[in-house]
Amino acid sequence: MAIPGPDVVRALRGIVGDTHVLTEPDVAASYLTDWTGTWTGEAAVVRPADTAEVADVMRACAAHSVAVTPQGGNTGLVGGSTPTPGDDRPWVLLSLRRLDTVGDVDSQGRCVGAGAGATLASVHAAAAGAGLAFGVDLAARDSATIGGMVATNAGGIRMIRHGDTRAQVLGIEAVLPSGDVFTRWRPLRKDNVGYHLPALLAGSEGTLAVITRVLLRLVPAAARTAVALVGTVDVAAAQRVTRSIEASGRLIEAAEIMTRAGVDLVAAAGVRAPFDSGTTLLVETAGDTGDLSEALAAAGSDVVDAVVEAGPAREAWRLRESHTETIARSSTTPVVKLDVSVPLDRVQDLVDRVDRLAAAAGVRAVQFGHLGDGNIHVNLLDVPLDDQCTAADRVLRMVADLGGSISAEHGIGRAKAASVGLGRDDVDVAAMRAIKSALDPCGIMNPGAIFADP
Amino acid sequence: MAIPGPDVVRALRGIVGDTHVLTEPDVAASYLTDWTGTWTGEAAVVRPADTAEVADVMRACAAHSVAVTPQGGNTGLVGGSTPTPGDDRPWVLLSLRRLDTVGDVDSQGRCVGAGAGATLASVHAAAAGAGLAFGVDLAARDSATIGGMVATNAGGIRMIRHGDTRAQVLGIEAVLPSGDVFTRWRPLRKDNVGYHLPALLAGSEGTLAVITRVLLRLVPAAARTAVALVGTVDVAAAQRVTRSIEASGRLIEAAEIMTRAGVDLVAAAGVRAPFDSGTTLLVETAGDTGDLSEALAAAGSDVVDAVVEAGPAREAWRLRESHTETIARSSTTPVVKLDVSVPLDRVQDLVDRVDRLAAAAGVRAVQFGHLGDGNIHVNLLDVPLDDQCTAADRVLRMVADLGGSISAEHGIGRAKAASVGLGRDDVDVAAMRAIKSALDPCGIMNPGAIFADP
């Protein structure tokens, strides 16, 4: 009975309208299966139009002990925004996509309000229209929604410059499991009145409340940007190159790393790197302290090859952003995808160990990611289905051994819920559970996400 | 019986040693009265040496229902780190000053671990020794401790550039009221495994746990800095000048504002401004995009006077940092000090309204602060003792009317606990209380701070 009973469905239809409660499997399917195709649950899909409707839906669900999983663009990679497979509790998948309004940019206060369902691209467009920028960017920008990005504390390619999504949140509106509406909505840079609950909701993956609107900090648009693709012998050399560029006085706006296997793979798919090197660094900078080529020359023999482009360099970024889809198409089995981070002095170590692990197992490893954050996306291709759990677990344990995080920017969701012990100790988990119980005493908020047992 | 009974005192002496439990009033006095001299409580002062001792002290206090107020450098301005006056519960003031170790800087990972009792200045020194910087700075740097700064989420003069103290916290160690030690201590830029409890502890003012150690993010030292003192006709003009400088491609490292009354006051005390203007802006920039004077010229008639200095400009900063002490000496009664923020387009409005309020009441107003953050320190001088509460309340209500915050960077403590309703609504306060109860079920952590009723 994962779809709530007829009385509850009737109540939900009364709140959001008949057409916005989807119970037919084929109509609801695109919501109930996650982007990776790995996670499918059962639920009634409910599509409220605004915060008031979300509050009424939450009240109805609380009254009938219906589990609720909020969903934004359904671009998550850890099964965090689809119901738990096989769980037969009555369940609502609460789609926030209709809450997609982006407000007027406050140019003086440098902020903009956006509904949870607004796409990242729409926020970028609004900011750009006011000569400003939003400090978070990622490849799924046309689908990923602001609510989901805050709920997972998304990272992405600009974090080295502007911080994570949490750091962009000036205000938040969220519906608590009780249906009460939590609101902090002041365009203030400093506001220390009690606990910073927006920072707690950021990254809570729908387990505490339903985020409905967010007031986002905007930043000045980057001036005088340049992009370089730099070939280096290894990851450590690429790290030295970024430090050398930084020492020239420029700001690093992004520092992405691609290993040989991935660059070769996208080359075969038609997106060619401009040279043939072991490791490729994509570095984007801002600030006009001379020619970027000079800064690269100062990096000496760490630079094997380099191509510098002024302004937004679509080709360089295409090389990087083609990885995910190319990898998905190239593997004979579903790709084992792990989003991890390690201390900056262990990145080379991680990449080497993963390569050795893959070689020993006879599978292919493609690694790329956000070098400046120590955040590597590990992709294992052609792993037989029966070996996938073991392979993932081995990588996560390796990361834990290196003092890293089993979830850098994708979150825990359901995919890593059983592995939380690799990243948090018992005291920490107990404190998290105490907070979960305090804000969601009946346990209806996204059960199965973050915490493995319901 | 604000000093715990003899059995508890004996237990505490057994943990930290006889000499580190202070129960004689004259010995304990410097801990039990706050920096402003307004708040005095009664307690046994306990000075543990390390985290293990803090944990044992907390266990002893929990077992005997002893209230605990953590204290760092005792530089707070809202009575947050001294016991509640007149409260006769058994109480321990837990001084963290002995936990003052600053670890080795991790140059590659750009971070450093510091004990809660380490001063801000000692962290600055460690960072500078490695060619890096810590992103938070404030005038009380020689006394303010890292633990207190995290517990209050201190702001200061660099926030416009590097964010608040919360944003600098990569890892944290804290003792929960149970005596359990909470630890996240990985030098990672991205680590999304469940709730971000360090962000919750930051700004919790000792009401949830005792922070014992912090792993702090470091940033590159600013290159090619310059400082300008700029005279403008008013605050709004000063805001336009900072935007104009920013548009030149420089990074704003600090943007401080001083109104005429304060500049005249410090001039009379011997620290003279280089010109005679209505409002004085101190702006510090980094980046070498030409002469700062040119950027000021581009601001046109908004600049009435300007003096530019290259490198660290001690005189300009002395003008700004002399305000607090000069004001304290100049008032015939204790200064009514309020730390507030408003939306950036309301700063001029706030300053004008406070000036009018002071004029109508026949008292003097000195206003200065962090222009880039909309954070103004309102000081009312010569307010008769009987009128002080009313005067403070009028300013806070004015700030709330302007959509501002009654506490920008100093926190709530006990001074503003009764005014929390001006900044947070009932749903918000209830959520905060639920979290407080979840992590501190017996209510022993700093009762009276943030929440007015015990």
From TrEMBL, chains A, B:
Coiled coil: none
Domain FAD-binding PCMH-type: from-to ranges: 38-221
InterPro entries in alphabetical order: FAD-bd_oxidored_4_C, FAD-bd_PCMH, FAD-bd_PCMH-like_sf, FAD-bd_PCMH_sub1, FAD-bd_PCMH_sub2, FAD-linked_Oxase-like_C, FAD-oxidored/transferase_4, Oxid_FAD_bind_N
Biological process terms in GO annotation: respiratory electron transport chain
Needed cofactors: FAD
Gene3D superfamilies: 3.30.465.10, 3.30.70.2190, 3.30.70.2740, Uridine Diphospho-n-acetylenolpyruvylglucosamine Reductase, domain 2 (3.30.43.10), Vanillyl-alcohol Oxidase, Chain A, domain 4 (1.10.45.10)
Residues that span the membrane, as ranges: none
One Pfam family, short name: FAD_binding_4
An MF annotation (GO) of this entry: FAD binding
Keyword list, A-Z: FAD, Flavoprotein, Oxidoreductase
Protein family per UniProt: Belongs to the FAD-binding oxidoreductase/transferase type 4 family.
PANTHER family: D-2-HYDROXYGLUTARATE DEHYDROGENASE, MITOCHONDRIAL
Protein name according to UniProt: Oxidoreductase
Organism of provenance: Gordonia spumicola
